[in-house]
Amino acid sequence: MTVPRHRTRRDVVRGAAAVAAAALACPSVAQAAPRVAVIGGGFGGAACARALRRLDPRLQVMLIEPNTTFTACPLSNEVIAGLRELRAQQFTYDKVAADGIVVVAQAAKSIDAQARAIGFADGEKLSYDRLVLAPGIELRFDAVPGYDEAASVQMPHAWKAGEQTVLLRRQLEAMDDGGLVVIAVPAAPLRCPPAPYERASLIAHYLKTRKPRSKVLVLDAKDNYSQQKLFEKAWEELYPGMIERIGLSQGGRVTSVDAATNAIVTDFGNYTAAVANVIPPQKAGHIAEISGTADHTGWCPIDPVTFASKLVPNIHVIGDACIAGGIPKSASAASAQGKACAAAIINALAGKPPETPRLDGACYNTVAPGYAFSLKGIYQPKADQYAESEVTTSPVAASRDVRQREAEQALDWFKTITVDAFG
């Protein structure tokens, strides 16, 4: 059913709870209309909820997401560089609700896996037959000494698109020409592994056009990263002398920061930044810990065929939060997992065996206006994890015409994936 706009959040929860209670009271209704709840309204959660309704319109599907507007991370580095406005990244759930999905604009506070119930801060509860968690990531503010949520106001991470994205952009605009921009990159796993290097590229573009005496320093807790040769070729071609990267073996791992002075300490050196972009290590979103689906790594082990949690029955985990082997943590992967998970749930509710999923993924990186490259892959379960079955990357020696076409394809991809998730 479509939720009228004038209904309050409590009305929505009570209405969905009443439907669930009626189903519990009447076994025939329960069999006719199973209840599937999806927590998290990002690319994975929204795609999963919409796929469930498309595959079986009889389902009662509830999307639980406290934010009424979703702000997309893909292309948000262009916002930081002044090439795009934040509003172009923002989407509502109006068309999701129009699909007959009950959108609950509250944060889930508890999960009782035995009772199959989700609790909210106001005491209301929703029951479910199957639950899908798509919580994204949580930033580990305790992982870098000196860096916490308060410090992120001075040293923004901008790793969750929104206010932090705009904050980093404003700091770049306010910086004097000749200033040093430092980007601290954590070890894997992290959301969108090539994104820090795309960010370095687009910040360099901004500096080249506005503050040409400035430089970008990337302090990296890794020695190697995705599409490294393509980035290095682009930096040599577009930003000679503007971007320096120090990898793990050269002392690039950040060991502490001081937000009061914008100081960053590594294994082998100290740096003072005019603008400091500190990206902390990550883990699965908070609800994963509450539900018991996260293990000691902070991420969620799953069955790669069904996305069912290996730790908690009747719960599935998709997107950045899950341990998915060779498939990267990205919007494209989350969307593909959401649809595959929906298909697995439909089969399970019908008593049918699951089909082995074949997930397509694409990752575009824009390093300057009209200059982009990509990695495209097909991923399938193998030995209890996802593995690459086919992967294609852009050629390192491609012409500028090829880079221009890929930049156009990146915009087309973004439009496609956002329409697919949010209408």
Model description:
The protein has 423 residues and is of the alpha/beta class. It has 2 domains: 9-66 and 106-138 and 283-355, FAD/NAD(P)-binding domain (3-Layer(bba) Sandwich); 141-280, FAD/NAD(P)-binding domain (3-Layer(bba) Sandwich). Helices cover 31% and strands 26% of the residues. The protein contains 11 helices and 24 strands. The strands form 8 sheets. It has a 5-stranded parallel β-sheet, with helices on both faces. It has a 4-stranded parallel β-sheet with strand order 13-12-11-17, covered by helices on one side. α3 (43-55) packs parallel to α10 (331-349) and α3 (43-55) packs across α11 (400-422). The radius of gyration is 22 Å and the shape is globular. The relative contact order is 0.14.
